[in-house]
């Protein structure tokens, strides 16, 4: 059925009580668009400004700014922070106002919570809860107000009781209130019967129904049941909250008999503490029946369809749900690489410890060619002196010379065909970065940088988590990095820290790259400061990076202190922690608790045990280098972000940090 609007022969003067409530947001304008005069009333000191009036809710009749007659009154006010008696006093004030001002139609916004708990099927004619105190605080107030209005409203005033389900709309504060509870281990507990439907409705649909009720009043009294016929079960709804709003990693359901046991224990405990009047048994048991809702009469009365795209509206109801970043592809199964020619320019520690084991893991048996300053042989691989001859074509060139001289490989590879993979850092100066960009643009084969930490297992776990459970907007990333002393470095060129920029461009580079993984646009460096130790080395770099979509704070240190690296990603919906030394991944969707500490402790223990086993078995279970090499050779989407052109913005930001910290 298509919605329609019934116009009236004349504009109506309407009093809207509680226009600031979430459910009423946007309603005044919707009514004014229909040609009506709308006076809005809310709690506060007596006063008026334009069409908004404030004053005590229990003294509507005495408010001097509410003089004159009203054709209709729409009531959204419910005193949530007060008890049933206080709300009853307000309803008496409202009904007295309607009598005195000649109001012809009262539209009261009630709730489905006012229906009897024992009912299995609910429609417009279903009975109210006879004992409101059996309900929770919210349901008790709503049910008591409905009873009072039906009993005390003068017969000459028409009445529309609007009973909506859980209302969805922009500005929703808590999507799981009354339905679920966050558990300490990042899951949601379904409150009550997990299979029972959770009636939902959109706020715009409620506005449409209220306006139709105003413009086409009933002959006497009516009930409008505003629930979507395709509403989900409680468990389905909470799972959607996990997936679409990042509220948790999944849903925990308790069987209905268990809930009866919980209710009995709660009632016994309350009685022993002298708080039996709280009646926890009744309030918990009220959530257990499986109730069905049938709004067919309401749809026919209003001529509008209540079916709702509730998942879309749920996501739109919460702020910041559209991610402001692009999620990189994750790594798939590693392919087998056989009979591929690989050429090494530089054959030092990183090649022997990482690249060769990675190639063996991929099943790549060569042939291998190697060039280095020190010629020789390693595991059957002949190493020629670099620069004495130009390497020929190869399936893959791995540039693993010292970082400051990476650019010297450009001339050696100018005529060679094949994919080029450069160990980090790609360049140490803006001039050399420009040379690499020009080199990459002149080739048909790709040029990539081995930022392999993007493909480490914990980073990939984070990316998979972000794809499964919507994190919303990325707000900020914090990096806290501490390395052992540069003075202990075996490579002499790295010990010359101020010249090699070791702390920034070697030790911390992978982790700054991860901090900027989701950055959009140019990355700007702000307020960078540094400290030197007594050896004249940079011992601390602190600063802030700003991209178009989020900020990054950095604290980089080297010296005699525990080795550590921790990245904290603060998203709209939850927080992700990446740790290194050992490699860990943890997510915080619940409040901080010992459960979350134990989660990180277990992750750290597993990672440490894996490292120990690697040492004992003389192997490396870290597949990140293998993933980069395989991705480079087969053109995997997982390494698309490692192309020189894609990393240029990041390196320009590093050179700005370098300028402020090293004077370069």
Provide an overview of this structure:
There is one protein chain. It contains 20 helices and 29 strands. It is α/β, with parallel strands linked by helices and 664 residues long. The chain folds into three domains: 238 residues, NAD(P)-binding Rossmann-like Domain (Rossmann fold, 3-Layer(aba) Sandwich); 108 residues, Rossmann fold (3-Layer(aba) Sandwich); 209 residues, Dihydrodipicolinate Reductase, domain 2 (2-Layer Sandwich), CATH 3.30.360.10. A hairpin with a 3-residue loop joins strand 27 and strand 28.
**How would you name the CATH homologous superfamily of the largest domain?**
NAD(P)-binding Rossmann-like Domain
The average pLDDT score comes to 93
Q: Kindly give the count of domains.
A: 3
Tell me about the biggest sheet?
Answer: 8 strands, mixed
Tell me the strand percentage band. 15-25%
Overall radius of gyration: 34 Å
State the assembly state of the protein chains.
Answer: single chain
The number of strands is 29
Estimated helix fraction: 25-40%
Continuous helix count = 20
């Amino acid at each position: 059925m298509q919605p329609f609007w019934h116009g009236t022969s004349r504009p109506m003067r309407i009093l809207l009580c509680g226009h600031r409530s979430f459910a009423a947001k946007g309603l005044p304008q919707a009514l004014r668009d229909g040609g009506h005069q709308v006076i809005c009333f809310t709690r506060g000191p007596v006063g008026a400004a334009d069409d908004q009036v404030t004053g005590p809710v229990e003294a509507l009749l005495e408010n001097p700014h509410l003089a004159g007659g009203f054709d209709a009154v729409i009531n959204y006010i419910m005193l949530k922070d007060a008890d049933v008696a206080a709300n009853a006093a307000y309803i008496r004030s409202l009904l007295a106002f309607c009598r005195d001002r000649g109001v012809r139609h009262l539209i009261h916004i009630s709730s489905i919570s006012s229906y009897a708990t024992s009912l299995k099927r609910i429609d417009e004619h279903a009975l109210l809860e006879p004992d409101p105190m059996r309900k929770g605080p919210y349901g008790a107030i709503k049910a008591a107000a409905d009873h009072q209005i039906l009993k005390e409203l003068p017969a000459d005033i028409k009445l529309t009781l609007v009973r909506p389900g859980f209302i969805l709309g922009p500005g929703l504060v808590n999507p799981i209130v009354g339905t679920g509870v966050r558990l300490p281990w990042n899951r949601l507990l379904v409150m009550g019967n997990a299979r029972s439907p959770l009636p939902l409705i959109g706020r715009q649909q409620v506005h449409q129904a209220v306006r139709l009720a105003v413009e086409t009043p009933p002959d006497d009294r009516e009930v409008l049941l505003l629930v979507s016929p395709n509403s989900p079960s409680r468990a389905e709804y909470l799972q959607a909250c996990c997936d679409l709003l990042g509220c948790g990693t999944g849903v925990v359901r308790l069987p209905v008999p268990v809930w009866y046991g919980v209710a009995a224990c709660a009632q016994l405990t309350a009685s022993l503490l002298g708080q039996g009047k709280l009646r926890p048994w009744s309030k918990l048991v009220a959530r257990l029946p499986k109730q069905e809702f049938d709004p067919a009469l309401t749809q026919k009365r209003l001529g509008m369809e209540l079916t709702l795209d509730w998942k879309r509206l749920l996501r739109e109801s919460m702020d910041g749900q559209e991610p402001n970043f692009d999620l990189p592809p994750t790594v798939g199964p590693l392919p087998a690489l056989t009979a591929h020619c690989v050429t090494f320019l530089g054959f030092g520690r990183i090649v022997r410890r990482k690249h060769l084991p990675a190639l063996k893991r991929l099943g790549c048996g060569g042939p291998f060619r190697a060039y280095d300053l020190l010629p020789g042989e390693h595991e059957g691989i002949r190493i020629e002196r670099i620069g004495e001859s130009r390497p020929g074509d190869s399936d893959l060139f791995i540039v693993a010379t010292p970082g400051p001289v990476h650019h010297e490989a450009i001339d050696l590879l100018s005529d060679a065909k094949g994919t080029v993979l450069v160990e980090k850092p790609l360049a140490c100066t803006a001039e050399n970065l420009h040379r690499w960009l020009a080199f990459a643009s002149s080739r048909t084969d790709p040029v990539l940088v081995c930022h392999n930490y993007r493909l480490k297992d914990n980073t990939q776990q984070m990316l998979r988590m972000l794809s499964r459970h919507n994190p919303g907007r990325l707000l900020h990333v914090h990096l806290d990095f501490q390395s052992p002393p540069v003075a202990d470095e075996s490579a002499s060129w790295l010990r010359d820290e101020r010249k090699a920029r070791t702390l920034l461009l070697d030790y911390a580079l992978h982790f700054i790259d991860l901090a900027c993984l989701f950055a959009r646009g140019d990355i700007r460096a702000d307020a960078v400061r540094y400290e030197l130790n007594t050896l004249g080395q940079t011992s601390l770099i602190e600063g802030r990076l700003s991209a178009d979509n989020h900020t990054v704070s950095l604290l980089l240190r080297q010296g005699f202190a525990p080795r550590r690296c921790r990245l904290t990603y603060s998203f709209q919906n939850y927080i992700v922690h990446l740790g290194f030394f050992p490699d860990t991944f943890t997510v915080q969707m619940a409040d901080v608790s010992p459960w979350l500490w134990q989660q990180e402790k277990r992750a750290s223990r597993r990672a440490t045990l894996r490292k120990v086993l690697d040492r004992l078995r003389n192997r490396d279970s870290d597949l990140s280098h293998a993933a980069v090499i395989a991705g480079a050779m087969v053109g995997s989407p997982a390494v698309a972000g490692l192309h020189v052109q894609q990393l240029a913005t990041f390196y320009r930001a590093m050179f700005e940090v370098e300028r402020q910290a090293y004077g370069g």
